[in-house]
Amino acid sequence: MQLLDSRAARILATICLFVAVGAFLYGIRRTLVIFLFAIFFAYLIEPLVTRIQNSPAARDSRALAIAESYILIAGAFGLLLFFFGGQLAKDTRALLQSLPNLLDNVTSGKIVWQLGSRHGWSYDTQQRFEQLIRSHRQEILNWIARLGSSIAQFLANAIWVALIPILAAFFLADGRRFAQVLVDFFDRRDERRLLRGIIADLDRMLAGFILAQITLTAFSLIAYSGFLVLLRFPYALALALAGGLMEFIPVVGPLMAAAAILGVGFLAGFSRLWAVLLFLGCWRLCQDYVISPRIYGRGLKLHPLAAIAAVLAGGELGGVLGVYLSIPAAAAIRVLWRHWQDYQDNQSAPANENKIAEMKPAAPRKSAV
User: How far apart are CA 149 and CA 147, in angstroms?
Assistant: First the structure.
């Protein structure tokens, strides 16, 4: 008696293969993330490259169009730094220099007396708040230490970011060729048709996702900068830039940006913090219920519940990076599932037609008389 038949052996071998591939991908996850962000960057500048390639400036040369696109992007960043770099560097430097003193005021309880004297708190109230902070001083210091180590680890891996535009140039130059090689790997016509449909939908989905992220980031950066500068908020440009960049991280990023802005305002003793809180609440309602659905809805076609579930699962699996990649991953799974269902339906259709034909009674022969 055989312990395993051939079908069970194939299933077990398939499971082992998937486990081995998953372990291998987990081992090289840093390299995969760099390649993935290179693909995102390629999708970001693909419209610019195509427009330049179709213009007389590139003479229909893909390589020349890519080079000119990189030069234009570098020039645009140079202009932004020329006009806003000085103030941004000044705000960032002032924030970094004053941050230790601000944190020391919190952990020592001095912030309570500063706020209490400004807002007219009683002596007993200030003393109770100071004792509360002093009793949790170690927990606050541990949280600050964990946050600092996370930032240091992120900055240590920032050197990998320099590879993103280099790898993106290869994807821009030979991306279609890579896709065609993958399609040619399959022999059957229906399998090739399936893969072409998946690649085309993934291409549109990723292009829509990157465009949506850039648009939302630009809107947030303009809104944060205008309001904080108008209100003369401390370190306005530095916090506006951080808030705009955090828009790249779905759901969690805007919450972190709001917490950072309110936290710095609280520590710096900003008097009109209520106005900032009101602005952040109104902006989130406008961004989440007016702007984002119009931008995301057409490109990704994800239900809000599916998006929230994907963000939570991504955060559990991959932290901040998992949160960022969760939305396009969920949209990609949706594309794969839909195409696979269509493929299965097309495969079962001929078999069903044959069964129906066999069940029909044969037509009676006509008499020769």
Answer: 5
Candidates 279, 189, 199; CA nearest to 233 is 279
| Model pLDDT for residues 228-247, shown as the tens digit of each residue | 889 888 888 888 888 888 87
C-alpha distances in angstroms, 217 versus 181, 222, 252, 255, 263?
35, 9, 14, 14, 21
- Is residue 298 within 8 A of residue 208, CB to CB? The reply is yes
- Which range (32-36, 59-63, 196-200, 288-292) has the least confidence? 288-292
Note whether 260 and 268 are within 8 A (CB): no
User: Could you give the 3-state DSSP secondary structure of residue 274?
Assistant: helix
Q: Write 260-267 long-range contacts (CB < 8 A, 24+).
A: 261/224, 261/228, 261/233, 264/95, 264/102, 264/234, 264/235, 264/239, 265/233, 265/234, 266/111, 267/102, 267/103, 267/105, 267/106, 267/111
Instruction: Report d(CA 217, CA 277) in Å as an integer.
Output: 20
Report how far residue 154's alpha carbon sits from residue 144's, in angstroms, rounded to the nearest whole number.
Answer: 15
The pair of three-digit structure tokens given for residue 268, joined into one six-digit string: 């710096």
- Residue 61 is encoded by which pair of tokens? 């040369």
Say how far apart CA 314 and CA 337 lie, in whole Å: 19
Q: Which two tokens mark 275?
A: 């106005």
The pLDDT, as a whole number, for residue 369 is: 39
Query: Is 333's pLDDT higher than 80?
Result: yes
For residue 335 the two structure tokens come to 């594309």
- The dihedral of CA 316, 320, 321, 325: what is its sign? positive
Quick one: which of 247, 273, 251 has its CA closest to 262? 273
Cα–Cα distance, 185 to 13 (Å, whole number): 22
pLDDT reported for residue 216: 83
Residue that is written with structure tokens 């259709």 in the block: 349
Whether 324 contacts 37, CB under 8 Å: no
Report the chain's C-alpha Rg in angstroms.
28
Question: What mean pLDDT is predicted for residues 24-29?
Answer: 72
Category of 235 on φ-ψ map: left (φ > 0), alpha (ψ -120 to 50) or beta: left
